[in-house]
C-alpha cells in the first residue's frame, strides 16, 4: 500500500499495542529481523498532537493507557525537537542504559517511582521500535520493513533521549546465542512483511532463552 493511500491516523487514546507471540526455538531467516530485549516500560509517543498534548506538542501514553508525559520530560523535550511534518505516533520502550548501552531495569525502577527526574536518578532513553502514524496517516497496514524505513528518517542524531532499537536481519540463531551468553531472557523476532496488529500475532515473536533450549534444525 502506498503511503499516500493510508487512511488518517486515529487518535492516540484509541490505539492498542501489538503483543509478541511465543517462539519455540531460534532460527535464521532473511524474512525476519531480530533484536535484544529492551527490558523497559512500553510507551506510545505522539508528536504534533491535537489539543491537550504536553510540552513541545509531544506526549507519552503507557501500555496501560496512562498519560506519562510528565514522568519523562527529557524524552518529551527530545520528541518536541524533531520537527517532523504532520502527526507521528511511534511505539518504543523507556529504558535506562548503562555505559555499555545495556538496559538497567533496577535503575529504571528507581527513576519511575516519581514523575520528572529527581536528583540522584538516571536519565532515560526512549528506544523506538515501531511506527503507527506517520505524517498524519495510519501506517499500521504497511509491512514492518517499510515502517522501519520511515523510522530511520527521523533526525535522531545527537538526541540522547531518543534512539532506534537495534535489529539484525536474518541471523536469529547468532543473536540468540549472544543473548544466552549475556544472561538475557529472550530475543525478539520481527517478520519483515507483517502489519502492525493489536494484540498477539505471528508478526512479532518472543523467543525465550534457556540453558536447555535447542537450535531449530
The strand count comes to 11
Strand content: 25-35%
Helix and strand content put the structural class at: alpha+beta
Compute the separation of the termini in Å: 35 Å
Reported for the largest beta sheet, the result is:
6 strands, mixed
Question: Could you state the order of secondary-structure elements as H and E?
Answer: EEEEHEHEEHEEHEE
Radius of gyration, whole Å: 17 Å
Poorly predicted tracts of residues: 51-55, 212-217
What would CATH call the class of the largest domain? Alpha Beta
Task: Please describe what this structure looks like.
Strand 6 (125-134) and strand 7 (137-138) form a beta hairpin. The chain has helices at residues 73-80, 105-111, 144-151, 172-182; strands spanning 18-22, 29-35, 41-47, 58-62, 88-95, 125-134, 137-138, 162-164, 168-170, 186-191, 199-208. It is built from 4 helices and 11 strands, in the order E-E-E-E-H-E-H-E-E-H-E-E-H-E-E. The chain folds into 2 domains: 16-36 and 166-217, Dna Ligase, domain 1 (2-Layer Sandwich); 38-165, 2-Layer Sandwich (D-amino Acid Aminotransferase, Chain A, domain 1), CATH 3.30.470.30. The protein has 217 residues and is an alpha+beta fold. It is globular and about 45 Å long. The strands form 2 sheets. Strands 3, 4, 5, 6, 7 and 8 form a 6-stranded mixed sheet that branches.
Amino acid at each position: 500500500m502506498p503511503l499516500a493511500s493510508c487512511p488518517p491516523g486515529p487518535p492516540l487514546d484509541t490505539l492498542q499495542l501489538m503483543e509478541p507471540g511465543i517462539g519455540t526455538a531460534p532460527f535464521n531467516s532473511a524474512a525476519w529481523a531480530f533484536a535484544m530485549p529492551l527490558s523497559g516500560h512500553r510507551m506510545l509517543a505522539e508528536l504534533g498532537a491535537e489539543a491537550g498534548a504536553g510540552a513541545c506538542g509531544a506526549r507519552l501514553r503507557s501500555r496501560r493507557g496512562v498519560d506519562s508525559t510528565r514522568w519523562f520530560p527529557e524524552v518529551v523535550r527530545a520528541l518536541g525537537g524533531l520537527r517532523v511534518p504532520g502527526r507521528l505516533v511511534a511505539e518504543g520502550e523507556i529504558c535506562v542504559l548503562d555505559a555499555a548501552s545495556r538496559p538497567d531495569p533496577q535503575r529504571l525502577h528507581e527513576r519511575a517511582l516519581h514523575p520528572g527526574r529527581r536528583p540522584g536518578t538516571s536519565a532515560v532513553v526512549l528506544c523506538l521500535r515501531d511506527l503507527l502514524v506517520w505524517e498524519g496517516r495510519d501506517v499500521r497496514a504497511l509491512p514492518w520493513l517499510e515502517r522501519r524505513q520511515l523510522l530511520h528518517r527521523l533526525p535522531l542524531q545527537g538526541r540522547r533521549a531518543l534512539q532506534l532499537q537495534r535489529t539484525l536481519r536474518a541471523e536469529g540463531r547468532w543473536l540468540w546465542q549472544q543473548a544466552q551468553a549475556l544472561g538475557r531472557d529472550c530475543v525478539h523476532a520481527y517478520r519483515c512483511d507483517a502489519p502492525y496488529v493489536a494484540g498477539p500475532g505471528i508478526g512479532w515473536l518472543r523467543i525465550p532463552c534457556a540453558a536447555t533450549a535447542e537450535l531449530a534444525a
